[in-house]
């Protein structure tokens, strides 16, 4: 806490020295205004010309009488209040983290005890997986960029944002179940790449994973800085960048790792509360707010239909799917998001943490729930922005402010006043904090486990694939006697480890006695050291995010540019990553040529196209020309398609078709990925109904695992293909038959968007809670060994007396903590997982 307070003071002092200038009052030039302004209703040609309704003219006159239209977001939140908000968010996260640490310490007495007794990454339920995914996938960009495209392209913008980013999450269910089948012990997708394709390919993919984390971090901080600057008075970008880094760092460092999972539940719930608040304000206006010109969807429709869309929409209407800008954005969005989901370790970690069968449903339901955030939020905010612009007869923001993502904060400020401002600030901070710390942890994990442990200082240098890391004997080898193979027991069943655990749990004070188990002590100490390095790595990465923020601000990157560029840089790795777990025939050369070749094709075609615009690639117009829609579209398409093509073609050329034995041998490589301290067979033995062997690597043959996971696999494929077809083809295709919406069609559209938000909110708030509660109850009953007796109301009667109640409470706490730690281990990639 002291650290946070000191940082807070430093930041305040730095602020005192900063200089500010008064922003010059801006006006929209008449030529620009003419592109938007209209007195007649925009509708299908068949209906003919009609004047706007009286409602519209009345509002416009009112604006003129009140001193003319307003422009821009007015920063009204005082710096002091903003600091308090920061402090509050920090304290809130720290409080949760502290509570978590207390449970660890006082209920378990020793953290190490947990690692051995409850090491069971892979037991998170459907509801929690969905919550974690929704929270991770909700970037600050999700809240801002979706509203931006809504205000530029109309109704098709939010749809493309939501549909084009939900399918990746749903399709990820397929990768998730295949990972559980073919590499159940893997904790990162990079481990699979390393096991199958070797060092060079592994390092290349590590680079792309870094790029992904870097670019996600950039778009997070750009969006965060833009919103902070627009709403908080006298806040310089430098200070905003530093504050964001402090929030991310503080949260990650103060035991925040452990609280990630709790915070994501709160975070998701908060987001939905805010969305519903805004929907209610815009469509129902319960407080009869005089600033709110709407109040029902008919009013929203009247205003929007009297406002022109200059960006290539059919008949200049915002209420149509015939929008070239919307479509280009849709395609780029789909491509880029494939990259940010498949290539970001954070989603693989969620998949690893979930139970195999529940994980599939977690991803599907998580994707459908998340769909509501951009779809409902941006439909509401974007429509409100356009309607309010129409109501005052002039755009509320300049084009560059729209590109920065300020439409959503502006609407919140105008409609909800101070409440709206704080709500947006809080939302953005939560999004930056949870996603930012996940990215920092992901980078640190890759650095330590995939680079340091693998190449710089491995536990056993020169270890060949198929050898046991503890005794260096082969796990299985044709022609070798059983006695010459590794006989290492798993740490759970090991006597030496049990003694160690007992001794360490009794020791008081910070320094724990050394491990003494003759088999596992060296490996355990090595892993503990790695964990220490990883924490330092997290500190370092957090500090590096400050110069990153400042760099983005200095070169004037905007959110839209970064968002469009993402796919060009990383989308070439999407298909190779999917193939690495789906296709046995893929080869190292195929993977490399796909990911590198695709990236080169994407970047060069993008730059080539951009150089055709006026000014070429000169420094003064670089961001503008390279940010044009069509170069970005071409670059994205080239990147993902060349990546896929090269990976396929080169793999087929470099490896002949395989026999079923060869295929099996290929997957044995990935099944070998395991942690002797918590082997995967133990984690899945309940779900797979397996017999446990003496040695940690005794495992069932592949076809048994395949058979057990068959239902989940079919579910994942059906849901993935169905929703992809629905969101990409069927839904938008059927919208094309509508043309320009009339009032009835607009009503149906907003009812769908509102309804989706209400259902998703109900699901995400209630289901995780209910499932955890249910699990607790089952565990309690099982632990007491009592058969539940019904007391007539359907409630189980507790067979214990008052004197034993505290025992039950402690047990209850333990089960909660148990599950917490389990999920944390999954999401933070703790040392014993590897
Ligand atoms: Zn061994
Ligand atoms: Zn041992």
UniProtKB/TrEMBL annotation:
Transmembrane in keyword set: yes
GO cellular component: plasma membrane
GO terms, molecular function: urea transmembrane transporter activity
Keywords: Membrane, Signal, Transmembrane, Transmembrane helix, Transport
Protein name in the entry: Uncharacterized protein
Extent of the signal sequence: 1-18
Pfam families in alphabetical order: SSF
InterPro entries linked: DUR, Na/Glc_symporter_sf, Na/solute_symporter
Organism: Tigriopus californicus
Family indicated by similarity: Belongs to the sodium:solute symporter (SSF) (TC 2.A.21) family.
Compartment(s): Membrane
CDD domains assigned to the protein according to its UniProt record, in alphabetical order: SLC5sbd_DUR3
Membrane topology: Multi-pass membrane protein
Transmembrane segment boundaries: 79-100, 120-139, 159-179, 203-227, 239-258, 265-284, 318-339, 360-386, 422-449, 536-555, 561-582, 589-610, 630-653, 714-734, 746-770
Main location: membrane
């Amino acid at each position: 806490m002291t650290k946070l307070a000191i940082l807070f003071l430093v930041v305040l002092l730095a602020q005192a020295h900063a200089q500010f200038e008064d922003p010059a009052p801006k006006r929209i030039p008449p030529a620009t205004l003419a592109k938007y302004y209209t007195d007649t209703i925009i509708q299908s040609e068949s209906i003919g010309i009609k004047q706007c309704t009286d409602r519209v003219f009345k509002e416009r006159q009112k604006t003129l009488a009140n001193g003319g239209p307003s422009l821009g977001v007015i920063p009204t939140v005082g710096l002091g209040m903003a600091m308090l908000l920061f402090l509050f968010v920090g304290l809130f996260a720290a409080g949760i983290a502290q509570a978590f640490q207390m449970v660890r310490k006082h209920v378990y007495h020793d953290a190490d005890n947990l690692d051995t007794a409850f090491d069971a990454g892979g037991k998170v339920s459907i509801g929690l997986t969905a919550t974690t995914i929704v929270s991770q996938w909700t970037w600050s960009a999700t809240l801002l960029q979706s509203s931006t495209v809504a205000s530029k392209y109309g109704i098709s913008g939010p749809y493309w944002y939501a549909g084009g980013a939900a399918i990746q999450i749903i399709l990820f269910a397929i990768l998730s179940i295949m990972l559980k089948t073919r590499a159940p012990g893997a904790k990162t997708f990079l481990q699979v790449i390393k096991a199958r394709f070797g060092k060079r390919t592994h390092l290349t993919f590590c680079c792309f994973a870094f790029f992904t984390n870097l670019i996600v971090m950039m778009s997070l901080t750009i969006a965060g800085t833009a919103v902070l600057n627009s709403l908080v008075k006298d806040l310089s970008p430098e200070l905003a960048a530093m504050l964001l880094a402090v929030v991310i760092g503080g949260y990650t460092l103060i035991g925040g790792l452990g609280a990630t999972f709790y915070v994501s539940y709160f975070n998701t719930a908060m987001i939905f509360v805010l969305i519903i608040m805004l929907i209610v304000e815009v469509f129902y206006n319960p407080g009869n707010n005089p600033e709110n010109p709407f109040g029902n969807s008919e009013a929203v429709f009247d205003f929007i239909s009297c406002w022109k869309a200059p960006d290539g929409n059919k008949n200049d209407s915002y209420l149509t799917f015939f929008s070239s800008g919307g479509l280009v954005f849709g395609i780029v969005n789909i491509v880029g998001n494939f990259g940010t989901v498949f290539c970001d370790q954070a989603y693989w970690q969620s998949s690893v943490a979930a139970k195999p069968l529940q994980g599939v449903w977690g991803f599907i339901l998580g994707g459908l729930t998340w769909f509501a955030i951009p779809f409902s939020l941006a439909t509401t905010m974007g429509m409100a922005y356009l309607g309010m612009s129409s109501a005052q007869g002039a755009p509320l923001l300049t084009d560059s402010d729209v590109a920065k993502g300020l439409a959503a904060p502006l609407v919140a400020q105008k409609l909800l006043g101070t409440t709206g401002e704080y709500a947006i600030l809080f939302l953005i901070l939560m999004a930056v904090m949870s996603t930012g710390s996940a990215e920092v942890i992901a980078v640190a994990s890759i650095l330590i486990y995939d680079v340091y442990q693998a190449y710089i200082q491995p536990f056993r240098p020169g270890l060949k694939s198929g050898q046991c890391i503890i005794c260096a004997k082969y796990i299985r080898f044709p022609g070798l006697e059983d006695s010459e193979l590794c006989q290492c027991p798993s740490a759970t069943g090991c006597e030496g480890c049990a003694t160690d655990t007992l001794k360490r749990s009794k020791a008081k004070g910070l320094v724990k006695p050394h491990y003494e188990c003759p088999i596992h002590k060296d490996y355990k100490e090595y892993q503990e050291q790695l964990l220490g390095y990883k924490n330092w790595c997290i500190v370092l990465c957090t500090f590096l995010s400050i110069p990153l923020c400042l760099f983005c601000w200095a070169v004037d990157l905007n959110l839209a540019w970064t968002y469009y560029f993402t796919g060009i840089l990383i989308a070439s790795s999407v298909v190779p990553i999917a193939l690495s777990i789906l296709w046995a025939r893929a080869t190292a050369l195929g993977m490399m040529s796909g990911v590198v070749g695709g990236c080169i094709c994407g970047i060069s075609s993008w730059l080539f196209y951009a150089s055709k615009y006026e000014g070429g690639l000169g420094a003064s117009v670089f961001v503008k020309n390279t940010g044009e829609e069509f170069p970005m579209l071409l670059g994205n398409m080239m990147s993902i398609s060349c990546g896929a093509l090269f990976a396929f073609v080169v793999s087929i050329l470099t490896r002949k078709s395989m026999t079923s034995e060869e295929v099996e041998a290929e997957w044995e490589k990935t099944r070998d990925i395991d942690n002797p301290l918590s082997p995967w067979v133990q984690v899945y033995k309940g779900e797979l109904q397996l017999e446990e062997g003496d040695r940690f690597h005794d495992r069932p043959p592949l076809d048994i695992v395949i058979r057990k996971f068959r239902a989940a696999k079919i579910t994942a494929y059906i849901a993935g293909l169905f929703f992809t077809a629905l969101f990409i083809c069927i839904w938008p295709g059927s919208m094309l038959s509508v043309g320009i919406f009339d009032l009835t069609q607009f009503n149906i559209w907003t009812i769908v968007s509102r309804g989706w938000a209400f259902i998703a909110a109900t699901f995400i708030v209630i289901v995780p809670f209910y499932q955890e509660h249910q699990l607790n109850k089952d565990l309690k009953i099982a632990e007491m060994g009592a058969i539940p007796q019904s007391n007539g109301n359907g409630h189980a009667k507790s067979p214990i007396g008052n004197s034993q109640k505290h025992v039950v409470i402690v047990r209850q706490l333990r089960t909660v903590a148990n599950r917490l730690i389990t999920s944390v281990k999954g999401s933070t990639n703790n040392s014993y997982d590897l």
